[in-house]
Structure formats: structure tokens, C-alpha cells
Design goal:
An eight-stranded antiparallel β-barrel has the order 1-5-4-3-2-6-7-8. A hairpin with a 7-residue loop joins strand 4 and strand 5. The two termini are 26 Å apart. It is globular and about 55 Å long. It is of the alpha+beta class.
Length: 208
């Protein structure tokens, strides 16, 4: 079976970061988190909402080198995320890929006459922003990401790679409930939703 990325969004308070680093939350994680940091620039593409309306998100991601900054000659990596049946804004299951040929197949289901990756698949840029990400693996299997964008929005996700999405969502729910001191699941807001609230697109954008 195919591995799917199972996600649950949450809101996090940057003020809780020191508690997290010291692992002083109650209850604490099974071991002190080893937090990794990176910065990347995402450019999202669509065409008259034909992709996002079908739950497909296509972006080009370029990582920031802390010693060299952004290399503008580097085109970045194409990525696509297809929302699977049963997904919601807060609890999502995605089929994700960085394979340009698979991305092309995904896009062609929505836009049959699209171009190839060298021509940005014939899509139009709809937004771009930078994200500083801090991430760690908790309790041996849950990937926790804490994002802060260059337009001032903070968002978090707990992620699992799994074949059984229902089982993974149940595991994530139990994990979030145990460590509720870090995870606020009451009103999460994704990065794209927050971006389009500040910079409305010419079309009605789907939430993510």
C-alpha cells in the first residue's frame, strides 16, 4: 500500500518554545526534543482555482542556505499534495510527491492540456512567502513542525507517514490530548488561509 502523509493542524504560541526546548511541559515528552531548524521559500501555483478546488496544491520550494542565502539560479523542487477522500481542513490526509512526472499526472486530472515542469506546468503563480520551520520527532514517531512565516503567521502540524490513515489520525488525536500544553487545536489556521486573508486572490481560494 502507498504511504500517505497524515496531518493535524494546531496553533502554537512562540512563548511556549522555551518550555518545549527544556522539556518542562506537563507531562514532558518521553525524551528532550532535538529541534531542527530550516528556512525555505514556497511559491504556489494554480490556474483559475482549477487545482485547489480539487484539493491539489502545487508549489516550488527553495531552501535557504544559512551560509549562502538564497541561490536565485536554483529553480527549487516541485512538490504536489493531493487531498484524499475524508480529509478536512484540520485533519488531512495527502498523497505527496516530488516526482515531476507524477505531479504532471496529478495536474492533468484537473487541467488535461497542461504544460511540463520546465514551463511551470502552464500554471500561474498565486502566492509566495518564506517560512522558518522548527521541527522534532516526539515519542519516537510523531513529526511536530512549528512554522513562522515572513508575514507574521505561526502555524503547526503533527504528521505521520502511514498506510492506514484512520489509525494514524486516532494515534495523532491521542498524542495531542496527552500533550495539550503545547497543542491548541481549537482554531487552527493554515499558512495559505492566513496569507490570502492578508492578500486576497483574484479568485476564491480553497483553505489549506
Amino acid at each position: 500500500m502507498k504511504l500517505l502523509e497524515v496531518e493535524r493542524k494546531f496553533t502554537w504560541d512562540p512563548a511556549s518554545l522555551n518550555i518545549l526546548i527544556a522539556n518542562r511541559g506537563q507531562p514532558p515528552f518521553s525524551s528532550r526534543p532535538s529541534i531542527q531548524s530550516k528556512t525555505f521559500h514556497d511559491t504556489y501555483y494554480d490556474l483559475e482555482n482549477k487545482l485547489s478546488s480539487k484539493g491539489l496544491w502545487v508549489r516550488r520550494r527553495l531552501f535557504h542556505n544559512p551560509h549562502k542565502g538564497i541561490d536565485n539560479s536554483n529553480p527549487g523542487v516541485w512538490e504536489a499534495k493531493q487531498s484524499m477522500p475524508g480529509s478536512s481542513f484540520v485533519c488531512s490526509t495527502y498523497d505527496e510527491t516530488q516526482d515531476p512526472s507524477r505531479i504532471l499526472q496529478m495536474i492533468r486530472k484537473c487541467i488535461p492540456e497542461c504544460a511540463g515542469p520546465d514551463e511551470a506546468f502552464g500554471l500561474e503563480e498565486i502566492c509566495r512567502f518564506a517560512t522558518h520551520r522548527q521541527s522534532f520527532v516526539a515519542d519516537g514517531k510523531f513529526t511536530v513542525v512549528l512554522d513562522k512565516t515572513d508575514f507574521g503567521h505561526s502555524a503547526g502540524e503533527v504528521e505521520l507517514l502511514a498506510e492506514d490513515a484512520n489509525r494514524a489520525h486516532a494515534d495523532i488525536d491521542a498524542f495531542l490530548a496527552r500533550y495539550a500544553w503545547l497543542f491548541d487545536c481549537s482554531k487552527p489556521k493554515g499558512k495559505l488561509t492566513a496569507y490570502f486573508e492578508k492578500h486576497p486572490p483574484p479568485f476564491k481560494a480553497a483553505s489549506s
